[in-house]
Amino acid sequence: MKHLKVADLMTAHVVSAVPATSFREVAKQLAEHDITGLPVVDEDDHVVGVVSESDLLARRELTAVDLMTTPVITVHAEEPAADAARLMVRRGVERLPVVDEEERLVGIVTRRDLLRVFLRPDPEIRRRIQDEIVTHALAMPEDAVDVHVLDGVVTLDGRIRSRSRARLLVDLAERTDGVVTVVDRLSVPDEDGARLTTLPARGVDDPLW
Question: What pLDDT, on a 0 to 100 scale, did the predictor assign at position 132?
Fold first, then answer.
């Protein structure tokens, strides 16, 4: 499955500072570029901190090295955009400097950028789960699982032969770009395999996938 990567959403031309950048220059850059924070890089373009509007308001230090927040949270350009969004929410930050394999600054991604991941139309999300996961990745018949999507919330109905296979289906669906959450209504055999909790839409003689 093809996922949106951080590189697909980031701003590549990054406004940045160096440790010696003055308070006034940092404030000027934020105002001129209408941004709320900028990364601080060393001579090798490695990110050593981030200066935000809050840092400027809280402290009156002379240079960026004294103003910046450390340690800095970064994300790699090739990481899935959805993972970056979760990291941003978990760590409570508004932006993430984007680095390459050598940890050098190559871009920046903001919450607004990452919101685009969750603006995919419901029919497109349903098609990707049905075609790329159910049919292709798990090699199940198209009608083995009923996929319903409303406002990014995916509901999965169907009879799956094992809990591990059902968990894999849910996990892959959750990782699909645009999915807000997954409602699991899949049924699986009991531990002894003798009985099955069935869904009203399917008969007990239907095959398990």
Answer: 93
Q: What is the CATH number of the domain that holds 166?
A: 3.30.1340.30
Say if 144 falls within a structural domain. Answer: yes
Q: Which residues of the chain have pLDDT under 70?
A: 1-2, 190-209
Q: Which residues contact 79 (CB under 8 A, 6 or more apart)?
A: 5, 6
CA 31 to chain CA centroid, Å, is 29
Q: What is the β-pairing status of strands 95-99 and 75-76?
A: parallel
Query: Tokens for 113?
Result: 């950028």
- Domain of residue 47 covers 6-117
Cβ contact 11:109 at 8 Å: yes
Which of 66, 62, 10, 19 has the alpha carbon at shortest distance from 39? Answer: 19
Please write the tens of the pLDDT for every residue from 126-138: 999 999 999 999 9
Q: Are residues 111 and 149 in the same domain?
A: no
Greatest alpha-carbon pair distance for the chain in Å reads 75
First CA to last CA distance, the chain = 20
Q: What is the pLDDT of residue 209?
A: 62
The model's pTM is: 0.66
Classify residue 59 by its DSSP letter.
Answer: -
From residue 119, alpha-carbon distances to 10, 86, 175, 208 in Å are 16, 16, 15, 34
On whether residue 89 sits in a domain, the answer given is yes
Strands 153-159 and 181-187: parallel
* Domain total of the chain: 2
